[in-house]
Amino acid sequence: MFVSSDIDLAQILSEVLEEVRLSVDRDIIGADLLYSLLSAPWLYSLLRVYECLEQHSRNVPNPCLPHASRLCQELMSSLRGLPAPSSEAQELYALLKKPHMQELLSAHDSVAQRDYAPVLPAVPNEMSDNEEAVRIVCLVKNKQPLKCCGEGKPSHWNSLRRFTMEKLALARQFGSEDQSPLPSPGDLSSIPVRNLGSLSRYQSIGSCNLCCQTTNFSGGGLNQSSPAVCDSVMLVDDEHYKCSPVYPRSWCSPGCALQSQTAPCSPIFQRHRSVDATRSTHPALRFTKQQSLDELRSTVCTVANSMDTSTSDARDLRKKMVAVTEKMTDNMEDNAQALSLLVEVVDKLQDLIIANKSPDLSRTSRAHQRFQNWPGQHIAPSKKSSRSTPNVSSFSSSSSSLSSSSPSCNVDSPNGATIKKDPKTGNIFIARVIHGGLADRSGLLLPGDRLLEVNGQKVSGMPPEQVINILVQSEGNILLKVIPNSPQPINNQATLYVRAMVDYSPLQDPAIPCPDVGMAFSKGDLLEIVDQRDNRWWQARKLYSASMSYGLIPSTNQFRHKQRELWWSQPYQAHTCIRPCTPPALTSTHIQQLELFKVLVAIRILLSLPSLQPDLITLKKLESELSILMDSSCPQTITELIKSLDAILSADDLGEVEFMDEMRCTETDEEDFEFVSEEGENGEHMQGLYIGMNSQLLSHSVFRMEIDSLFESAGFRHSLRVWRRKAYSKQNPSCYSCSINSCHNILANLYEDVVHFQPHIDDPPRLIVLIGSSGVGVNELRRRLIKINPNTYQGPVSHTTRPQHLGEKNGREYHFVTKEVFAFLVVNHKFFEYGEHNGHMYGTSFDSVKDVVDSGKICVIDLEPHCINSVRTKKLKPYIIFVRPPSPESMRQTRKDPRFLANSYIKRYFQDKDFEEIVEASRAMEAKYRQFFDCVIVNKDLQDSCMDLFTAIQHAQEEPQWIPSSWFAPDGS
Ligand SMILES: Nc1ncnc2c1ncn2[C@@H]1O[C@H](COP(=O)(O)OP(=O)(O)OP(=O)(O)O)[C@@H](O)[C@H]1O
């Protein structure tokens, strides 16, 4: 499709051509020559380029007012000059004088005066004469001016430097800016170093009106090195779940380019497309003395600095690259040596990257070959025989030409297309075009195109493997004859940003059409979904990831489909561990049952403790009465729990006994305990919910299980929680591992839509939620945070049914309510967390959080992770910080100070097993819930952790964050 313009030059040209053709018919001398000149494809292409550029210059946004500040100054001086200014004039003057107005205008001017025209890159120096057409495609893609030769053109190194800088800048900025159809840094990173000169800046492919017209180009005058479209096509048997790379990728094969050739006039509008799979045809880079040696140094240093230095090999490489800079002098010869060294480095780097892919790779030959082609040597056009066969190994081999400027580039990313066979007709089709790959960028292969021939060989009816084989065995140019799919499906869906809620590995997914084009992701990863046209497989890439290439991910439909399959394939299991995620409503019957149950547990424990020598007969009688009472009205679970209680009590469990002894010697009396648990070490009020440790009854595993069941959202203290973990390990492991959330996970979403949210100064502060395994220091951090800055941070005031103590004030320490009121609040879902301690109910309500937020303070709470969903609401917009423990060894060092451990309510030092347990519990918690975490703090040194917490909270309130888009939905909660 042509670019519409007032003067359609191509149209004029075709009219002129028609005239000339008539002259040819009339045998006018010279008309022949003129005709052939005018019908040259490059002329058409040039005209199109011209028109594109024309259109661009017409559409460049021009500010109406480039100097608003100046106008303001002028206006102000005019106002000042007024002999008797009216009140309006005075008001206007005062308004204009305001600093923020001045700043606003100055900001406006900066934007208005800035030149947003693209920086157009240089064309590669070495291009043969017949490369104009594709070069033109590149030019248009990059909006490059037609001036490509002559003095003063940027050197390759200059381009490389600029390219590298931009790539790094892009990587750094990425995510901090609005993510509107973003360039694919993967595109940048897949550019061969020799072609960098032509790609100094990425331009949206969508802006190219010419790409889709390339199939109209005629003649064999297409080049073999189109930098912007250089890549490979991976042809894959989509349907049969097989895939195979068939020819090198762009930076694998510098000369590789997808081309279109003369389209024969055919009734079915056949389109020939040819893929040039040759390699090593890259033109000689004439590294003459650099215009600026600093430029050269900075190029190499930038590349070196951007390298991942996690491995010793990479570190060595980096050192070598830095050494390169030292070798650079004004002397041309040295300069060439430096560059040779760099070539070596580049080769090594490539070897490293492709080591896993191609162990049989001949490094030396490649290095040798490349070495020959570097500075000071003229590169002879590669002979056909010397070109590698584009088979699988050459695919890897050729990837050795990876640019040293893109160490993070993932060589494994298949940027191409896949094929499939229609089982009914036997026709071979292009199944999928991977976003950002060669086919996509060139626009020459599109999904649904029917593949007729490969190198003149008809492929219809062939098994896809055979087609792949033909391609694999082809040498040099591969000519594909395709019938374009018409009409082309249009991807009119906007880019979608999501957070992955599960882990996914394509290699373990038998359903994926081609695992090689699949993209693995983990819980919490941010994904940019660019193509949702396929109902089952979307195309996406990971944000903030080293690999910027796109790949297939399961669509939500596909995920649901899999869930259904899984559901039906599994035998029915009616186990009790499937419980609702939201806490059950607590009725007065529940409370009554619970009280009964507690007494029953108490009796059974007393019965099991011979040292207490209880009145056995009385107790047994009481127990049986209670059992009957419980059995008649209790839920099934309670009856089962009683049975397991018996089992546990009868078991000779040393660990348990040890624990009980320990508790006996460390516990304080009830009143002390309660007082301390509510008042912090420094006397300040401790918010939250604690279950007493003073009674062996309460600490018993069965009781805890019941508490969990009924009050699963309750918060617990360190020691009880540690102990609870111990108790859990004694339960039926299958049931335990299939707790609420794991069961619930089956029904979980695959992705959560997110938006980039920039908090506004007028927004209410976000709720800060601290999460961590018991004993990691969540309470300590929260307490310190509030203590250090009570005017900024505050915890919510909880509700309780316990009587008010002397000196306590309703609404300050607690909201004191009756049991009925509490039950009413529970039933009406007013609490996001509630539980029972010592016969009294405690709960933290949404309203109490709102009170803190309304007071302008930042509300900080600690929460059990399974309650996360209850606070993830539009109103609270929680920022969830996970407190992770350091290593057990490190905790041994930092937690040995008695000041920390000898506090009044734990009353014992940490033991080694506690550290192990904390780390283990933390790992499990993180594995399960990390998709919800906005930030992770490792609580090693308390001071540092506090600082980290401050910084994180500040970040939460000021910096842009990815948050669920439902928080913006009008009906979101
Ligand atoms: N970084 C640290 N260095 C030294 N001691 C610490 C550190 N963090 C926490 N502590 C100490 O460890 C003990 C447990 O901390 P804290 O009570 O905050 O744990 P928790 O995660 O809230 O667990 P629980 O909720 O079970 O109480 C406290 O005595 C606390 O002072």
TrEMBL record:
> Guanylate kinase-like domain: which residues?
765-954
Superkingdom of origin: Eukaryota
Manganese as a keyword of this entry, yes or no, is: no
**Biased composition regions of type Low complexity, renumbered to the chain:** 387-408
Q: Please name the InterPro entries in this protein's record.
A: GK/Ca_channel_bsu, Guanylate_kin-like_dom, L27_C, L27_dom, L27_dom_sf, MAGUK, P-loop_NTPase, PDZ
Q: Which residues form the L27 domain?
A: 1-61, 68-119
Region called Disordered, residue ranges: 361-420
- All copies of domain SH3, residue ranges: 493-563
Q: Which SMART domains match?
A: GuKc (SM00072), L27 (SM00569), PDZ (SM00228)
Q: Which SUPFAM superfamilies does the annotation name?
A: L27 domain (SSF101288), P-loop containing nucleoside triphosphate hydrolases (SSF52540), PDZ domain-like (SSF50156), SH3-domain (SSF50044)
Q: Which intervals carry biased composition (Polar residues)? A: 361-375
Q: Where is the PDZ domain?
A: 416-486
Ranges that cross the membrane: none
Keywords (alphabetical) are: SH3 domain
The record's comment on protein family reads: Belongs to the MAGUK family.
- The identity of this protein, by name, is MAGUK p55 subfamily member 4
